[in-house]
DNA sequence: ATTGGCACTCTATCCGTGCGAGTGCCAGAC
DNA sequence: GTCTGGCACTCGCACGGATAGAGTGCCAAT
């Protein structure tokens, strides 16, 4: 069992260590914080904390450093979100309020978050789960190419070129479009994929005799639906990892690779369990299954057109959790508001 | 003046240093290469090379290391491209030959190049300079949104949502499309921008009375044209910089930032002057104006639908130039062939 | 439960030393 | 003139020992 004061000592250790990057000793604590007790008392508390594996000593006679478990207790029980300054708030607001479509907004969001936190910022695209197809459009480009466009009600647009190798008449195009549309429009993306797959297996249905060309178009539509199903994200500030290089024992390579791959990070972010405020942190070794055991991720849920996604930052385990939690939450709230306005005020 | 043998000594130094990352001494040279002369003779040659500032000593009594100028002479006069192995060639071929549109092809290209070289790979999109607009399409999404699509003859597609706030009738849309089309289709992108700007200044021309909504659409088209004008690139393998961390004196931060910004690297790549083979290298301090004085860039031109662009790799100055030059050239050739096939064989 | 005191441990730093790699130069051979 | 062997010399670096300093752990007293 750890006493209340011991927890405050833990908080002091975490804060000072994040601040100075130096292991913190009992003397430094009584100097920088006003506990009203002597260093020896603090030492007793520290011994308890060490028994509980909340802090550890890099070597026998040095200050203590928080363990991953220590950080965990800190964010769960000790951290108060550090509210943003007025300047920061108005910064976010002015940065985000410019007009633009979903891509623009998310791109600006991720940049705002990285300047705010100095960490790698990540914004997940709203999930496909509840998205439905709202439009399918075919545009003939000539020379045997057809531009195939699929739009969802969440504002995601996918466009891709099908090499049909033949050109169609206008009315043929209208027929194909109508047929694909009837299969997809108004339906959830995931159902659409099934329906299209069935259509692919039965090319005889074609409303035109250009069977090969038509199924090429259908195949491309299927590809686009598949793309919608996959989670996407935008990321910014990867260079910040290099500024914090010393906080990583090993090379930056695995981290940079995970960032480039995206899929690992998307999985990690998706599997985190948010609290009632929509916030969550995943700390150090907790990320071991993802090969990111020296990093922490802080996320917040946001709402977009009925579907829900996440914004977050990635950085070294030794990060300023109160600030990052507050920043992530603030940005998520702005984003939610912005996307809701967008939805209604039109 | 440097003798012919001195140049061969330079080659040996560059090759060994790139290989081992150790400063190379006269004795090591006579051991690893068969010059048929003694170490003392090599030392005389090395003294000459040092006078010419082609090699330098990290400290008085250690082996020598190529200077940037030394690498330059190596690349210009001594390097023979190291031909790819059959396995590598067929690897590129199988990797690239899958079907897909321009985005797909370039994305695969950049990945092929990064696995081939182990460096950061960059592929410039074909330039807008000679591209012409081939299609303008409007798709009404409902709820006051209009999807605005612009396509060029080089296969680049841009799509963006205009918040018109009102919905149009079908025939209104057709009119607007026709009007914008008549301004742009078949004309170079850069001219289009001027024409659209003129149109923006004179909204009275609108073929419909929904003036505000119409000019919103036109504004979005202008944005898309502007986007075409800007050079674009795809990049892969940034994590490789972390593997070569030791080759950079300072932090990786400026490099990673330049990669994220893209614009610096695009300018650098554009300003390089290729030889008659379409190859070029920019070495170390030569990149000082771009803040990349510890890095080298190797590029090759490629042709795409009449316009020309570049593929390249970025890495530490101490890189394997023969291999990288050969890889970049091979990939550029495959890419040229692929895009030409694509153009004609349809 | 808290405190002051004290012995102890470990690290980081400095200094001196020796070693070895590698150079630079010279005098002689070809 | 070019090449070569030889040799003195220069440094960087690794090693060992000594020292200072930070910080702990424990204990006896309050």
UniProtKB/TrEMBL annotation, chains A, B:
Domain of life: Bacteria
Family listed: Belongs to the HrcA family.
Gene3D superfamilies cross-referenced by the UniProt entry: 3.30.450.40, Heat-inducible transcription repressor hrca homolog, domain 3, Winged helix-like DNA-binding domain superfamily/Winged helix DNA-binding domain
InterPro entries reported for this sequence: GAF-like_dom_sf, HrcA, HrcA_C, WH-like_DNA-bd_sf, WH_DNA-bd_sf, WHTH_transcript_rep_HrcA_IDD
One Pfam family recorded for the sequence: HrcA
Heat-inducible transcription repressor HrcA C-terminal domain mapped to chain residues: 103-322
Organism whose genome encodes this protein: Microbacterium awajiense
Classification via NCBIfam families: hrcA (TIGR00331)
Residues in the signal sequence: none
Sequence intervals crossing the membrane: none
Cited function: Negative regulator of class I heat shock genes (grpE-dnaK-dnaJ and groELS operons). Prevents heat-shock induction of these operons.
Name this protein carries in UniProt: Heat-inducible transcription repressor HrcA
Keywords for this protein: Repressor, Stress response, Transcription, Transcription regulation
């Amino acid at each position: 069992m750890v006493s209340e004061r011991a927890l405050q000592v833990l908080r002091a250790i975490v804060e000072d260590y994040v601040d100075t990057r130096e292991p913190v000793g009992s003397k430094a604590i009584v100097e920088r914080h006003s506990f009203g007790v002597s260093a020896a008392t603090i030492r007793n508390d520290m011994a308890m904390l060490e028994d509980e594996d909340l802090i550890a000593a890099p070597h026998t006679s040095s200050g203590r450093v928080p363990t991953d478990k220590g950080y965990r207790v800190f964010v769960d029980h000790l951290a108060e979100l550090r509210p943003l300054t007025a300047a920061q708030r108005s910064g976010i607001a002015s940065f985000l309020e410019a007009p633009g479509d979903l891509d623009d907004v998310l791109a600006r969001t991720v940049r705002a978050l990285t300047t705010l936190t100095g960490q790698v910022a990540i914004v997940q695209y709203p999930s496909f789960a509840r998205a439905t197809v709202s439009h399918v459009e075919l545009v003939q480009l000539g020379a045997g190419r057809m531009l195939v466009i699929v739009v969802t009600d969440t504002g995601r647009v996918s466009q891709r070129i099908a090499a049909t190798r033949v050109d169609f008449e206008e009315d043929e195009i209208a027929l194909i479009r109508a047929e694909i549309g009837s299969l997809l429009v108004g339906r959830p993306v995931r159902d659409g994929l099934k329906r299209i797959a069935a259509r692919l297996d039965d090319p005889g249905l074609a409303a035109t005799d250009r069977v090969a060309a038509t199924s090429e178009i259908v195949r491309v539509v299927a590809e686009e639906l598949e793309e919608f199903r996959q989670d996407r994200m935008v990321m910014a500030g990867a260079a910040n990892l290099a500024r914090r290089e010393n906080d990583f024992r090993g090379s930056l390579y695995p981290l940079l690779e995970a960032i480039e791959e995206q899929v690992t990070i998307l999985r990690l972010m998706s599997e985190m369990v948010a609290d009632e405020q929509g916030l969550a942190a995943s700390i150090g070794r907790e990320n071991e299954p993802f090969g990111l055991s020296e990093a922490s991720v802080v996320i917040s849920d946001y709402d977009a057109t009925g579907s829900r996604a996440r914004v977050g930052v990635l950085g070294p385990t030794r990060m300023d959790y109160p600030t990052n939690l507050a920043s992530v939450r603030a940005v998520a709230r702005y984003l939610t508001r912005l996307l809701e306005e967008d939805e209604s005020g039109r």
